[in-house]
Amino acid sequence: MTDPTFPVPRSDAGNVARPNPAFALLSILGTTLLPVFVTLFGLAALTFFIGRMLPIDPVASILGDNATQEAYEKMSRALGMDKPLWYQFGVYVKGILSLDFGDALTTGKPVMEDIARVFPATIELATLAIVIGTGLGIPAGVLSAMYRNSWLDNAIRFTGLIGYSAPNFWLGLMGLVLFYATLGWIGGPGRIDFIYEFDLEPVTGFHLIDSALAGNWEIFGNVFGHIILPASILGFGALAYISRMTRSFMIEQLAQEYIVTARVKGLSWARTVWVHAFRNVAVQVLTVVALSYAFLLEGAVLTETVFAWPGFGRYLTNALLVGDMNAVVGCSLLVGVIFVTLNLICDLLYRVFDPRTR
């Protein structure tokens, strides 16, 4: 019989304290969003102060070299250039928090208005490019890993090497000479022929979508004829990177023991690769695709210049050439937001699909 003066030992395994859901949510938000804000603030500060140290005078860029001293000083006060640098940065940060990046010196319009005008063209171009790069790059990478060191593997790797090595502007010029000037298969530079430009009512800012919504397939064909070559050139570069990374991921997976087990059980080689091995690298491949898309959104400068594409990269280049720091900082922050957002999405997908990262 148990002595009542001594407590009976019992297990507390079923009474493990559970974390407070609200505290857990705040912890996740703190560890996720705080680095995002710190990164964006650091990017804004770095871009702002580097812009102020460049040997480019924004006042002279506006007024020209023949401006009088009185006009120069008046414009300098209007831009706040006569204030201390820390004060200018504080004013700028205050404007950023209200999504006010100031007026662009090149257009005289708010920077956000300019970005909203040119960014849809780049999104449309980069989206079609990443569809081409992903649709061809992932199967190419998987096939290259399946038939490693075969003629197919060598052909895919050689094609990827060309995609890495050939400059986009050279491919663009050669493509225009061959497919536009010689064969006449595609449209020329720009997003749309001039005769159709005023017939297309802007709804979303994406010409392919707007022409499809209007049911005007003649304009849709014209827009597609203009976008297919620059998108293919950008997609070729993305294809090279995506196929190479997919091949590396798949080779590592195909060397695992579960692949041998699946083959011993009688599964076909194709089913083993696509159903079992590829599923384990899908999130990694998705990360590569997301980063490739981010690079396409901000790195299509040369392609947009060659094809006279009125997009984000061309706008940023023109702003840099004239020292329009309001536009440069605004565009730089947008690029930072794109990369941070896509990285955050990839991190969340890792947590969802890979329990080991939770």
Automatic annotation (TrEMBL):
Stored Pfam families: BPD_transp_1 (PF00528), BPD_transp_1_N (PF19300)
Chain's gene name: dppB
PROSITE patterns named among the record's database cross-references: ABC_TM1
Topology within the bilayer: Multi-pass membrane protein
Coiled coil: none
Name of this protein: Dipeptide transport system permease protein DppB
Annotated ranges, domain ABC transmembrane type-1: 119-350
Positions of transmembrane segments: 22-50, 85-105, 125-147, 168-188, 223-242, 281-307, 327-350
Compartment annotation: Cell membrane
GO MF: dipeptide transmembrane transporter activity
Chief location bin: membrane
Domain of life: Bacteria
UniProt GO cellular component terms: plasma membrane
Record lineage: Bacteria, Pseudomonadati, Pseudomonadota, Alphaproteobacteria, Hyphomicrobiales
Keywords (A to Z) from UniProt: Cell membrane, Membrane, Plasmid, Transmembrane, Transmembrane helix, Transport
Family: Belongs to the binding-protein-dependent transport system permease family.
